[in-house]
Amino acid sequence: MTTTLELSTESSSRRAERIRLLAQPAVVLILVAGVLVWAFSQDLDATDRETLNGPSLLQMLYEHMLITVLVSALVVVIAVPLGVLLTRPGWRRLAPLFIGIANIGQAAPALGVLVLFFLATGAEGGLWVVVLPLAFYSLLPVLRNTMVGLQEVDPALIDAGRGIGMSAGAVLARIELPLAVPMILAGLRTSLVLAVGTATFAAFVDAGGFGVLIDTGYKLNRLPVLLTGAVLAVALALMVDWLGAVAERYLGPKGLR
Amino acid sequence: MAPFVNLWEYVVDRWDKLSLQVWLHTSEVVQATLLATVIGVGIGIAVYRSPAGSAVATALASAVLTIPSFALLGLLIPVLGLGVAPSMTVLVLYGLLPIVRNTIVGLSGVNPAVVDAARGIGMSRFSVLTKIELALAWPAILAGMRVATQMLMGIAVVVAYAKGPGLGSEVFSGLTRAGSANATNQALAGTLGVVVLALVLDGIYLLINRYTTPRGIRD
């Protein structure tokens, strides 16, 4: 029963992946074009135009992307080396501790973690006040996948590498890590999606992004502003997820595709 | 230790209000999970026999999961207003993916020979589905419900933005009252409350799993 279970899941989710790989960019284009045409054809007054104009939309896109990229970069820089370290002999005993901390990081509500960090840093707000707590929140998928990816490498391959005279470092760099790359990329895609989604909360701590439009539109009761912000945030998230899917497909080692 | 002493005093002092929010948070998440289960298992039953249908349902449900919860809430406010309606809609939509996926996995994992045998002894198509297939898929469906509940615990904090019920309102009051004496206590009570609730519900799922798994397929 286990084999059929795995086979059927894999084929169903692989087909689902293919559908998303093809359909998602089209959906993103339709969403962005649709909402911009609709919003700018509305009867916008001066208040609406303060947020709904080309330069400020581009600024919010930049802020939203910057937060997403910084969070993901921080996650990779912390989680991959940590994952490597925690699978080395001698360090393995510490693995449950770090996985436990990362688990708590993800079980805690992202917004709560963000607000707590904001209050603890003197309620000043700003870019790093968003990036640091969100990186903590998005750490687990990459950390776990790095460790699983490394643990799943066939020990015979490692022995073979050592046998032909490669040092432990060379085995890690040329055998273990390349074989773990697909798992790491899958984890990175999950972290990217978490980061781009939670980056909408940046509006609450004065760090910009499309969340600003949603928050402003809701508080001032401006429908075009609210909907533009929400649709653009959705489109950006779908786009980032799609880029993650493309990376997953094409950045892995050729031999494993 | 000082902030925790304050937090303790805060929690004791406001227990009337906090306990209500804990209850509302739990009730909201549990109801959303149950509703998502009814819909998700329905979708799973409808599509699991067709590979294309399964792929489309999985693709749609996983695309929904990509959408930022705050953006989805923003989209629903103009349509559904504030309060319970948009909150429940957001929670149910996010709860669907793990349940739909696991229902499809569970149902398509049932050994066809078992289904044939059941048909052979004269069971109707419906009783095969309810007594054999769903019973065997139940552990997978329950695992999906567990994942959904864990996820909804955090999303329920976000939906408090639209005047939804629950512990999220503590987090949002902490945010708007930044600088006042109790701001950090409110945010801490809300955040830690959700973590504790999530742990408690996870334990309850373990118990449900222990007592509702059909005896024949228990480990």
TrEMBL record, chain A:
Main subcellular location of this protein, as a coarse class: membrane
> At the top level of its lineage, which domain of life is listed?
Bacteria
Q: Which Pfam families match?
A: BPD_transp_1 (PF00528)
User: What subcellular compartments does it reside in?
Assistant: Cell membrane; Membrane
List all membrane-crossing ranges.
21-41, 61-85, 97-119, 125-143, 192-213, 225-247
One cellular component term (GO) for this entry is:
plasma membrane
- What residues does the ABC transmembrane type-1 domain cover? 61-244
Q: Cross-referenced PANTHER family, in alphabetical order?
A: GLYCINE BETAINE/L-PROLINE TRANSPORT SYSTEM PERMEASE PROTEIN PROW (PTHR30177), OSMOPROTECTANT IMPORT PERMEASE PROTEIN OSMW (PTHR30177:SF4)
- To which protein family does this belong? Belongs to the binding-protein-dependent transport system permease family.
Name under which the protein is recorded:
ABC transporter permease
Organism, scientific name: Thermocrispum agreste
Ranked from the top, the taxonomy reads: Bacteria, Bacillati, Actinomycetota, Actinomycetes, Pseudonocardiales
